[in-house]
Amino acid sequence: MTVDTAPVPGTAPALGSEPDLEAYLGDPHDPANPVGYPAVLAADERGELLAEGERALDGYGLNAEFVPRALGGRFDRADRLAQVLRAVFRRDTTLGVGYGVTTFIAATPVWTSGTAEQRRWMADLLLRHGKASAGYNELAHGTDFGRAALQARLDGDHFVVTGRKEMVGNLSRADAVTLFARTDDRLGSRSHSHLLLDMAALPAAHRRHLRRYHTAGVRGVLLGGLEFTDCPVPADAVVGDLGSAMETVLRAFQVTRGVLPGMAVGIVDTQLRTVLRFALDRRLYGMPVAELPHARATLVDGFLDLLISDCLATVVARALHVLPEQTSVYSAAVKYLVPKLLQEAAHRLSVVLGARSYLRDGPYAIFQKNLRDLLAATLTHASAAVCQATIIPQLPRLAQQGWRSSPPPPPALFRLADPLPPLDFAGLGLSARGMDSLTATLREYLAGPGNDPAVARLCGLFTAELDRLAEVCAELPPRDRTVIAGRRSFDLTDRYATVLAAAACLGVWWHNQDDPFLRDTPWLLAALSRLAGRLGLDPGAAPDGLERHLFIELLERHEENRGFDLVNRHLAG
Amino acid sequence: MSGTIQDTSVEAIRTWLVGRIAFYLQRSAEEIDADAPLVEIGLDSVYAMTLSGDVEERFDLEVEPTMAWDHPTVNALAGYLHGLLGSRG
Fold it and tell me: pLDDT at position A479, please?
């Protein structure tokens, strides 16, 4: 294992305080910054993971962000984890995925179901900057985990592992692999187990590395494969009970899927900043591009998409702590909708950038890289369709009761400065049991005294949409309640996820009245109108000056070098 | 569908389960073999979790969503649920 503590860029983390990754990684435009855009782009051209970047993240101790505090790491809040990782995704999605996310996905099942010894071992490995790989994918089965074929046969005091995993990040250099293996030949959901592999201890003769897979986006990520042939693995490598991997996955992936979209917000923060910089510098028809009505509207829409994405991402991450019994639906919804919104926003922004949106060099070259990387960020760890298929079976029960009668959530779900209870991995519900407190926020606001008429009118559009969804979903034919459902069910999940996003925006506005930006009603009206438009509903005419108001906010943040997300913090550089 | 049911005999539970499974698989109740593993007659892990939801609403009883993973036939499920409902008093 490489433990490199070479000098690193930016300022060293102060002793005794939480290190600040954004400040530590320094000005992304500085050509001398080893993790700035010029270096990031050069590594992408070479198809390599930026080595200096990996050293810098070792120096910061990024892996500690994934390790629960009780085990000596810094993980205690899912929303904070996403916000910290945003600093990496603002600069290099490849590093974010290839250094960060891969290890996070591999470690989470161990936090969820591992023994005290296994958790300790994984924590120590991560805190030493080790690499863990998530051994799930088999090309023949993809996310149809129930048919995963790699076999582990128990033989006395050890398993004998035979089969292959393919297209798995960091497999060729992993110190640990969380391996999803078939431990029972029968069909069913008790036939797979996780094995925690210590790669250094496995006999080399029984495993063989397969070729690297090359990708269009996140080109430096090391996607590899591994073939096992009668490979002995100690029996105590099993994570949780034999046959429990499916259940562990259904819990652990709520955390990973619930957090990843919030990290990806950082990618579009950079896209928007890049295009805004261009639009302010470049003059056409005697004025800056940013003053052209279409360009300005596109920039403001991009800002709104980013705020909407962050509202849903942040609220779902907080729900893992506050409403763990309901997050089986929310985590799939956020992993479906947010990458989609971010991708759509980036594509619209590319129109403003014009030909420069695909130039691989020059001052805006990070844009084309991010455009390619965004697709990979969407596909990583469950595609849109997989997430939708996770929601579909729960729709009828949500329709029968949850959308009408769930209790509203505690305000801590939305109050960004409120502390959160520890994340109880074992407490994450496999099914929401028809409960949906997030959308109940819409009805709660409408029922309350003294609500803002403009906000209430827009909220009414979404509760009416929910009523329509309830009618359709309660009567779904049996075939349309499963992963093999027709297109209609998939469309229903898109509409439902959009309503969830509206509820998240409302809650963030309503419960953060002490925040000078968030309490400001125009952004909420614009965000809700945008989401209503996405559903084909008529949000009515926008109030005069709304776009200008948001554009001024966008410009202020740009001039003061602050992020465009809910955190609204000062950025390095 | 919510509320309690009068008859919690194994037979009544079995008949109700067969009805639900026949609905999901879009087959007649006669075609459902009560001793066959659910997954082999086409009830995958997702349907199995949906079935747990049906049970909760029908019997006003909280069960694990993985109930049908651990009691993988109609007869096994009927026996398990009868045990739970019988002990409820």
Answer: 83
Q: How many residues does chain A have?
A: 573
The alpha carbon of residue B19 is apart from the nearest alpha carbon of chain A, in Å, by 13
Question: Mean pLDDT lowest for which of A379-383, A415-419, A437-441, A464-468?
Answer: A379-383
Tell me how crowded residue A471 is: count the other CB atoms within 10 A of its CB: 9
Highest averaged pLDDT of the listed ranges A176-185, A389-398, B35-44: A176-185
Rounded to a whole number of angstroms, the distance between the first and last alpha carbons of chain A is 33
Residue B33 lies in a domain: yes
CB contact B69 to A (< 8 Å): yes
Q: Does the CB of A400 have a partner CB in chain B at under 8 Å?
A: yes
Pick from A189, A396, A400: CB nearest B45: A189
Grouping H, G, I as helix, E, B as strand and the rest as coil, residue A120 is helix
Assess if residue B4 is contained within a domain: no
A564: in domain:
no
Residue found by looking up tokens 């986006």 in the block:
A217
Least confident of A270-279, A379-388, A416-425: A379-388
Report yes or no on A569 lying in a domain.
Answer: no
Total count of domains within chain B? 1
Region B1-27 average pLDDT: 83
- Non-local CB neighbours of A12 within 8 Å, separated by 6+ positions: A24
Domain carrying residue A108: 21-130
**Nearest partner of A19 among A67, A98, A74, judged by Cα:** A74
**Distance from the first to the final alpha carbon of chain B:** 21
Report the CATH number at residue B18.
Answer: 1.10.1200.10
For residue A216, the 8-state DSSP code is S
**Minimal Cβ distance to B66: which of A146, A187, A430:** A430
Residue A12 lies in a domain: no
The angle that helices A521-534 and A453-474 make with each other, rounded to 10 degrees, is 30
pTM: 0.95
Q: What is the predicted ipTM?
A: 0.90
- The residue among A80, A114, A130 that closes a domain is A130
Whole-number Å distance between alpha carbons of A337 and A390: 13
Q: Which residue has the tokens 């614009």?
A: A526
Q: Give the number of domains in chain A.
A: 3
Which helix (H) or strand (E) covers residue B50, if one does?
helix B45-59
